[in-house]
């Protein structure tokens, strides 16, 4: 292996060590880490490390055809340590600002969609429901008026029959029973109203 390839490998592994440190910080900020054990978190962490291991091996393969030497691990550790010592505070500051910016944009989009689509739809539905209630109330009152116009002549026609039925003995026997049913119905209705 030539000196140029070794130097290229060391520089790429230094960069990968720094990228690993930045990825760990980003992963820690973007994911929830519960205190108790969770299989979901364990699988997610395992996949995180598998992806980074494959990425590091891919960069190593591009540098020196995948030959593992001691200086490869030393360069990775040096890159990670350099990130922790020099770049971590700056990266975390920029990452926090980026996360706040993205969250602000998402909130702005949600509010814009709400005021552009959802609120007008709610307002239109409220207008439609109010209009329907007005129409139903008018129709109900018209029906009551029409019923009263129809009922009065009918009542004048059947009034003698009702008086005759009231005078019969059979009606006098049935009438107390019907009055009792009426009183029971009223008491049940009052109990429902009090609830």
Automatic annotation (TrEMBL):
Pfam families given in the database record: Spore_YabQ
Transmembrane segments: 37-61, 68-86, 124-151
InterPro entries on file: YabQ
Keywords: Membrane, Transmembrane, Transmembrane helix
NCBIfam families, A to Z: spore_yabQ (TIGR02893)
Stated name of the protein: Spore cortex biosynthesis protein YabQ
Species of origin: Alkalicoccobacillus plakortidis
Gene: yabQ
């Amino acid at each position: 292996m030539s000196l140029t390839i070794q130097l290229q490998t060391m520089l790429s592994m230094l960069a990968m060590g720094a990228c690993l440190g930045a990825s760990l910080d980003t992963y820690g900020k973007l994911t929830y880490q519960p205190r108790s054990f969770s299989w979901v978190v364990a699988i997610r962490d395992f996949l995180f490390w598998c992806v980074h291991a494959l990425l590091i091996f891919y960069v190593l393969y591009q540098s020196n055809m995948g030959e593992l030497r001691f200086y490869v691990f030393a360069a990775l550790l040096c890159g990670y340590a350099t990130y922790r010592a020099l770049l971590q505070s700056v990266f975390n500051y920029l990452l926090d600002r980026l996360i706040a910016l993205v969250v602000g944009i998402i909130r702005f989009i949600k509010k814009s969609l709400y005021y552009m689509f959802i609120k007008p739809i709610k307002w239109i539905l409220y207008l439609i429901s109010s209009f329907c209630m007005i129409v139903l109330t008018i129709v109900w009152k018209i029906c009551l008026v029409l019923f009263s116009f129809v009922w009065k002549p009918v009542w004048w026609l059947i009034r003698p029959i009702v008086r005759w039925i009231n005078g019969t003995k059979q009606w006098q026997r049935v009438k107390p029973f019907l009055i009792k049913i009426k009183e029971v119905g009223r008491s049940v209705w009052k109990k429902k109203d009090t609830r």
